[in-house]
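Reviewer comment 2.1 asked that we show a complete input and output for one of the modelled complexes. We chose the magnesium ion case, as it is the one discussed in the main text.
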Amino acid sequence: MVEQLSGGEILIRALQDEGVEYVFGYPGGAVLHIYDALFKQNRIQHVLVRHEQAATHMADGYARSTGQPGVVLVTSGPGATNAITGIATACMDSIPMVVISGQVMSHLIGTDSFQETDMVGISRPIVKHSFLIKSATDIAITVKKAFYIARTGRPGPVVIDIPKDITSPTDLYPYQYPDQIVMRSYTPASTGPPEQIRLAVNLLMGSERPVIYTGGGVIQGNGSAQLIQMTRLLGFPITSTLMGLGAYPGTDEQFLGMLGMHGTFEANNAMHHCDLVLAIGARFDDRVTNTVSKFCPYAKIIHIDIDPAAISKNVVVDIPIIGAVDLVLTEMIRLLEPEVTRRSDEQKQLLVEWWEQINGWRNQDCLRVIRQEDSKIIKPQEAVQAVYKISGGTAYVTSDVGQHQMFAALYHPFDEPRKWINSGGLGTMGFGLPAAMGVQMAHPDARVICITGEGSIQMNIQELSTCSQYGLGIKIINLNNQALGMVKQWQDMQYEGRYSHSYMDSLPDFVGLAESYGHAGFKITSLDELEPVLEEALSMDNRLVFVDILVDPMEHVYPMLVAPNGSMRDMWLRKGVRT
Amino acid sequence: MRRIISLLMENEAGALARVVGLFAQRNYNIETLTVAPTEDETLSRLTLTTSASDTQVEQITKQLNKLIEVITLVDLTDGEHIERELMLIKLQANGAQRAEMKRTTDIFRAQIIDVTQTTYLVQLTGSSEKLDAFLRAIPRDSVIEMARSGVSGLARNGTK
Ligand SMILES: Cc1ncc(C[n+]2csc(CCOP(=O)(O)OP(=O)(O)O)c2C)c(N)n1
Ligand SMILES: [Mg+2]
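Response of the prediction step:
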């Protein structure tokens, strides 16, 4: 017999049947029926946040670290609008997420009723898709579609807006969760076109100065193993965007480090001088290309992406390959293997020469930390290096937005995908802590570190309370430069040091603050304390530890691409020193 | 260059808003837009015209195709096609002007579908160019009000 359930129960059952473990949310009038249905079951754990934005970032951290969609539940009106920043963050980085928002009762929609906002309208530009449910009998199929859309193709957030009357406990409907879904209007790409792959292989084999440039798509598309295999097979240099770090091991010889605005000297120079770019799951973002007309002036470009709209959007490419990264790379490897064994001596010699040129750039050692001998002041880079050393480099690391984010990306190599978690596309301050919480929920036994700044952490600091409630032993590393450092850096470089509102006056006592939530706190002010205190902090398993590290407030992030009008080889290398 | 993009999409609330919203978000312009259900009432046909460079049009069509509700999309301007637009126009038709208006209407094979002592309501179908030509042919100050439907079109071949 088919079960009879209320709309609220159907929603929760559908989430269970979809395999959802956690729902991150916050209750309110329009979702009370749904919360009641949640109360009556125990297969899904609901995590009560302190602000809906944090719920979206938690779901996002969960998704980035597992590959499974994160699920959010918020009420109508302010609950829904508070979720917007997190939805936009997920959308920019193509993260699978399903956001369920309550809506006022169907008959009140459009009347400016209490806590009404047009959630489908407000979120439209920042979702992959959205649904407004009209009948309880549509709930199950809509949930099925939402998860399917969120996780397939180029992933992204999907909003389901549900008017309150539809989840009413008094009306019962038959429940059945669909096994399968076919949508005539949505068929994501899978294998790439074989002719294009063949053309790409020919170009790769004929190139003299190739570079592999990878992005977040390799991670989202689970193509890391194939990427490693292919890159090693070819022996080519490889660089990655901020979003793609970890897809290829950061400590490997062939890895040139990150490219782009704060990319390494060797990665940016290799891009500028190469004759072939193999772009994989990357989108030629303006933070990578610098001036588009000066981007890779000598190169042909192959671009592998699941999203046809990413092809030739910013930079026109020579060989587009639309398909799932793992499948395309597998096919490429199959075709490359015999070709590589046939490589001529001359070809091999050209590759050796290219590596010699690259190693010349590498020898500049652009990430060398320059410090005054007798000073005890901690450089933010050193703090990141110490975290890397003491943690063994295997932790999940989330970050916020600013200088500390770039220092984390540059000074903490990642050897595995899904370990480096940050808001690259939207650049959302306040992302780091809640994202770390989502990661910790998904991986209860793993070490999760949040590298943040005193500006960013205060944008979702209230979540320290959620951490106490759920016993989340995150390690927060606050690179405290007492300033909105990245803003200040730009003001140094472009506004003659006029620090318009980039100070952080009246900072809290972070240690005391953490302690007031029941957590542990440490403050580090001089270099000799750095390693011993970090050692102690990181060894406190299962406790949230807030490590407030006072770092040099005048430090800048380098290298930095020269803009406007610069190419990728035009970089600031130190204060006042450029190429 | 002017393009006529014709797409079939799910006939669902919200689908049109997504298409229109996309143009606003991505800073593309829409010149005309028509939309109505088709013989299969679960589908709507949307036809729009836009002026854009080739690379822009490529992006527009890709972004439109990415919308979940869009099923098929063709750029009619890529091949042979028929395009039509409907115009209803209320014209001042007094004294000597009245006969002149009638003559112009006949030349353009337009129809007068409503008449008062001082006005004609004229219906004209054809390509947008033809409609524009009619507007150029009549005195500007004779136009009381007008409505154009925007372009509809289909490809000139036997298939869908
Ligand atoms: C929500 C939000 N508001 C504003 C900005 C602009 N912004 C980028 S970096 C930055 C400074 C961040 O300060 P902090 O977290 O202390 O990091 P630091 O650069 O000092 O390491 C600001 C304000 C942003 N990225 N996000
Ligand atoms: Mg700061």
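Residues 2-79 of chain B form a domain with the Alpha-Beta Plaits fold (CATH 3.30.70.260). We note this here for comparison with the apo prediction described in Section 3.2.
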